[in-house]
Amino acid sequence: MAIAELSPSYPRARVHPSSLSSRFSNPLLSRCRFVPLRPSRPNGVLCSIAPNQIQVPVAPPADSAGKKECFGVFCTTYDLKAEEKTKSWKSLINIAVSGAAGMISNHLLFKLASGEVFGSDQPIALKLLGSERSFQALEGVAMELEDSLYPLLREVSIGIDPYEVFQDVEWALLIGAKPRGPGMERADLLDINGQIFAEQGKALNAVASRNAKVLVVGNPCNTNALICMKNAPNIPAKNFHALTRLDENRAKCQLALKAGVFYDKVSNVTIWGNHSTTQVPDFLNAKIDGRPAKEVINDIKWLEEEFTNIIQNRGGVLIKKWGRSSAASTAVSMVDAIKSLITPTPEGDWFSSGVYTNGNPYGIAEDIVFSMPCRSQVCDFCVLLDLLLRFSFSYLLWRNYFSPYFREMVTMS
Ligand SMILES: NC(=O)c1ccc[n+]([C@@H]2O[C@H](COP(=O)([O-])OP(=O)(O)OC[C@H]3O[C@@H](n4cnc5c(N)ncnc54)[C@H](O)[C@@H]3O)[C@@H](O)[C@H]2O)c1
């Protein structure tokens, strides 16, 4: 028997757990949010219900496979009359992660939920997309997330239909794909994974935010990003990125090792081309402690013959040693890539990302996704508006709701 206690002045309801067996199949509960642990009250789900939707919910039967989309703490009773005081003025960011039950996600999701990526005052909702085969594992992932008691993690949902999972997402981190095994090149995955990214592109086009940022990780990521972008014409092409930040990080590490410095001294490293063995890690423009890398290292033979080869084959060597492709360092590089997109790039530096080539200043063929140096910058108008609004009440609205739309402007260096 499902119960909803309704307050006429405040459209929130106390919902009995028996009505929560599936939050997606129950329209009344379609806006439930995970409420994090507080000492004074139990964790639970907060639901906003529009007055014209008020009715007693009926517990829906579990579907034929007996699957549920919410778990334990994400489904339990919560006193919805209690005032929900958010600790922050920032509005929730909806983040979709595909391949959420995979190795890379296993590292990434916890970084996202901890606030390491979008900031310690930024609440997030995680929408996890898996494949039919990985659905049970996806439930396991959600269980680990609830056990972690992240205060910024306000909502978790799981599913295997991209049209449901991508609804209103502002970020789509597309990891889910068949990974490369020993002896395989990334291009071998093209047929299998191309279809996945065409379908996901269509889904993003139909239901995601019009300004969604899409970071494609599943290989071959450049081609997959292009396929995804072509299937999502409603989303600006500049919002699509293929992850080459791992290669940049690997190149920075090798240059630092060779120069005998810590890697925070290495800057201006570009990965040109694809995330594959054909990529070109650029040591000519790289800097170590502000000086050209080739002057500091002073071993042009190593730079020309060994360095490039090491970076091109680092992933393959790792797979041979470990029997699977890199996961933790990939998740770290995704964090770096996202931060680079939402933070203005320091003067004189740049970062690498696979971007759509139309209009590029380097003479690279048009209509492909190719890694090149990029910068994020705030538009001049936004800097001015920021200054003007700083001392008014509207500043909070501007900073938390509107300025993110202007901040993430990426231009090629
Ligand atoms: N760009 C890079 O720098 C980089 C680095 C490392 C790995 N990768 C690529 O990332 C991808 C994932 O790697 P991983 O180690 O996490 O693999 P994994 O096998 O551990 O996880 C992949 C997950 O994706 C799921 N999946 C498969 N098809 C799906 C679909 N259509 N929709 C949603 N989920 C789906 C699988 O069930 C699995 O759980 C691989 O393609 C790998 O080659 C890219």
Automatic annotation (TrEMBL):
Q: What class of enzyme is it?
A: oxidoreductase
Q: What is its EC number?
A: 1.1.1.82
Q: Which domain of life is it from?
A: Eukaryota
Q: Which UniProt keywords apply?
A: Oxidoreductase
Q: What is this protein called?
A: Malate dehydrogenase (NADP(+)) protein
